[in-house]
Amino acid sequence: MRWVAIPAFLLYLVVVALGLASLVTRDWYQINGSPATGGSVLKYGLFYICSSGSSSTVCRRYDSIAKQDGVAKEVHDGFERLFNAGIVCGASLSLATLEVVMSVICAVLEFFRDRKDSLSTCASRSGFTACFFALFGPVFWWFYGVAGNNKTAIPVSSFSNVKFGFWLPIVNIVLLIVAGLLLELVGKKANSVGSAV
Asked: Is 42 helix (H, G, I), strand (E, B) or coil?
C-alpha cells in the first residue's frame, strides 16, 4: 500500500499550485461588455479590476480607485468593499495553502520514518482546516465583495459570471478530500499489519 501515498502527495502539490494560482489570477469575476459597463469587459481579481476595451486593457487596484481625490462616496465604498473582501479571501486562501504545505511535510516525515499509521493523523490534522479556509474565502468574497456591493463597483451581480479564480479553491477541497482518503487507506493498512504482528 506504500504506492497509495504517492498520488496523495502529488495531489497535495497540485492543491498548493492551484491555491497559489487562485491568489494571483485576475479572473475571479467577469462582466462582458454591456451598456452598464460602457461596452468594456470588466475582469475582477482579489485586488485588481481590469477593463478591456477595443484596443487596450487597463488594470487598477481597488484601493487606488477608492482613495483617489474627488471620488464619489458610492465609488469609494464599493471599491473599498472589494479590496477588504480581497484581503479576507486572500488571507483565508493563504492559510489553506499553508495548512496543506504543513500536511505534506508532516506526512512525508511520517512516511519515511516508517510510521505510516500516523499518515491519516497528519492528513486529518490540517485537512479539515484547509478545507474550511478554502471554502470560506471564496464564499465571503462573493457575498461581501460582489453580491453585497453597489452597482458602481459591480454593475452586474450574477453568480454565472464567476470565473476559474473563484472555482480553483473549490476544486482544491475535492482534491484534499481525495488525498486524505488515500492516506487513510495507508494508515488503516499499516494498523492492520501492526495488529496482525
From this structure: strand
